[in-house]
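RECORD CONTENTS
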Amino acid sequence: MVTVFESENIRFVKFTEELADDYLKMVNDIEHVARFIGERRTPYTMEEELEFIRNQKLMQPYTFSMMEKSTGEFIGNTGFMNIKDGEAELGIVITYAKQNAGYGKESILRLLDYGWDELSLKRVYLEVYIDNDRAIHLYDKCGFREFKRTDKDIFMEVFAGNGEG
């Protein structure tokens, strides 16, 4: 796996079919993971996951898998999507076994630095389910501020030079 950049405890590697089993386990964990990343509540098949990986690699080249430096174990995925005019949408998902270990904040702050420094981003935004209190708190700690709300989602943003990273 090709390391693109690192933080203190995380290696950020290119999205790869090598990790398809890990990805599938994560997205099929409906109770702890999947309910926060999409509407689907039925398990994905390996064929569907491999198709998703191929599409991600083509359409979202700044999507990365996170690997724990100390063990080499899979943490989750993060990256930028919809990059346009110095802005990008941030996405992150962490496998249940690696939640509550500080990887969320560490990975977001490092990804923001990468976006500011390497991609010349000026604004990063995201969408989070309104009932995902842990994620909202995390995004707030990373410098994101709410700019819009619906009955289902909160939209948050951070600008270059205004985050914690």
